[in-house]
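stage 2 :: seqdesign
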């Protein structure tokens, strides 16, 4: 049971890190898209 209690916060932390990376990737794509459209105009 002690191991299970230790794993739960770790899983939450991993989910948070993955979410942060996902947002960074989306933001970078969004920025690149704007940069390309401005460059093409």
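stage 2 :: out
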């Amino acid at each position: 049971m002690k191991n299970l209690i230790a794993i739960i916060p770790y899983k939450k932390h991993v989910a948070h890190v993955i979410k942060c990376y996902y947002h960074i990737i989306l933001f970078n794509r969004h920025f690149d898209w704007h940069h390309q459209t401005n460059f093409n105009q």
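stage 3 :: structure notes
- The radius of gyration is 18 Å.
- The mean pLDDT is 81.
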